[in-house]
Amino acid sequence: MLVFLLLLLDFCIQTSGQQQTAPPGRCDVPQRLAVHTDCSSCAVSITANCPHGFTKLDTTNCSYVVQIGGREVELEGCQHLCVENFMHPQCCPGHWGPLCLSCPSWSGKTCNFNGVCVDGDVGNGTCICDEGFSGFACQECKNPNAFGKKCDKVCDCVHGVCNKGPDGDGQCLCQPPYTGRRCDQVSRGCRGCSSFSYCKGEEKEAGCDCLPGYRRMKENRCLVSCAQRDCDVNAHCSTQASNIKCICKPDYEGDGKICIPKNPCLENNGGCPINSTVCVFKGPNKSSCECMFGMSPVGGSPEYGCQLVSACSADTCDPTAVCQTKLDGKARCLCDPGKIGDGRRCYGNLMERLIELDSRGDHRGNLTGAIALFERGCSMVLSHSGPFTAFFPLLKQPLTGVNEEVVCKNHLILGQHLYKALEGRDLNLYGGEKLRVKVNKGLKCLE
Q1: Rounded CA gap, 199 and 211, in Å?
Q2: pLDDT digits (tens, 9 = 90+) for 248-306
Q3: Which of the 8 DSSP states describes residue 68?
């Protein structure tokens, strides 16, 4: 089984000598994907390839289990470490979703610095407000009569409107004819104020001014008026009687002062079949269904579901292996029981391998005599025991006048070995003789 490990790199990948620039709101991160190939015989692993797009970095020791003669045997083997460097898409802090849209903000401050945005690739852009705060961008105090950066102060206006909220200072806009810090004093200068105005100033200096959101018109009347600061850019502003009303545009949701795009994927996977597709956010109230990796649409459209695409073909695996398509859409080759290998190449017992070598390839017909020798001398040993490393002589004709069993066993070494690992060593053969493998000079039998 391939073992996947994500390793975060601390360097930036560059293309054509220049650093790649991520789209606005994106802060892609360089990452490395490391893959270990299947553990197999070191002799077999030489031919094992890394997955497409990966580079072989190292070869490490491992162990694997094979069935030999009806018993399980754990053998030492080798596997490759393959790596692939790539840029992992990631939203910058304060951005969310596949499009990396900005989180709700107030006065340029994300969640008004009074909450945490559910940001990131799988976030929904919602502000989770701190204790005591509310609103889509945490721009309001939970207590409607509180003010101050911490919403820990309470307005005390008697006859007036308080400048409340996290940005408020608690100042009272007095209802005419009242004046004073708490709007609890009567002023003669404010007796003639029109509707939607407040009494500004103290005692004799007091005068009439329009409330915030109102403009002075003819005859000193104050009428409500929409301004850019009243509503979100994605909201419609309207006046109803003496009030300003902000309503988010279609495809957006919020209180009008803050409007965020509707994300259909947040409910029921956007109507996409859950088991085989993913819902991809495409913009305000827009989404599409896409097949999971390794799948193709049923009926030509992912909206109807997707099915696993077979990654197997006639030449994907060894003829004696079974090909399976994994959930990631990649092929996995499994050698038939009794055979070993990585599935791309499978090997049976030594007699089967000897016959196979004689029937095709460079040694076709050159091992016929060796087959006769080993069949008469130790066919049972080669079929049911081991593991062995065997030296097959090139014989087109069988040997005569020899003890086949002795000759056969003295061509075997217990265990699996690479020829390179045998060079310069003295070895005990399975038949009792000794063997010295000279470096670059082949084999020599010792008396």
Answers
A1: 9
A2: 999 998 888 888 888 898 888 999 998 889 998 888 999 999 998 778 898 888 998 99
A3: E
Enumerate residues 6+ apart whose C-beta is below 8 A from 153. Answer: 146, 147, 170
Pick the CATH number of 349-446 from 2.40.100.20, 3.40.50.970, 2.30.180.10, 3.90.550.10: 2.30.180.10
Put residue 376 in one of left, alpha, beta given phi > 0 → left and psi -120 to 50 → alpha: alpha
As a CATH number, domain 264-308 is: 2.10.25
Q: Where are the alpha helices (DSSP H) in 252-311?
A: none
Q: How many other C-beta atoms can be found within 10 angstroms of the C-beta atom of residue 225?
A: 14
71 Cβ contact list (under 8 Å, min separation 6) = none
Structure tokens at 342: 């990585």
How is residue 135 written in tokens? 């609103």
Q: How does DSSP classify residue 138?
A: S
Residue 92 structure tokens: 């910058």
CB atoms within 10 A of CB 320: 17
In whole angstroms, what is the distance from residue 15 CA to residue 49 CA?
Answer: 26
CATH 2.10.25 domain locations along the chain: 264-308
Q: Phi, psi (5° rounding) for residue 365? A: 85, -10
Helices (H), 94-138: none
Task: Tell me how far apart the alpha carbons of residues 334 and 343 are, in angstroms, rounded to a whole number.
Answer: 5
Q: How does DSSP classify residue 384?
A: H
Say which residues have a Cβ less than 8 Å from residue 312's Cβ, sequence separation at least 6.
323, 324, 325, 331
pLDDT tens per residue across span 82-125:
999 988 888 999 998 878 888 998 888 999 999 999 998 888 88
In this structure, are residues 330 and 51 in contact, taking their beta carbons and an 8 Å threshold?
yes
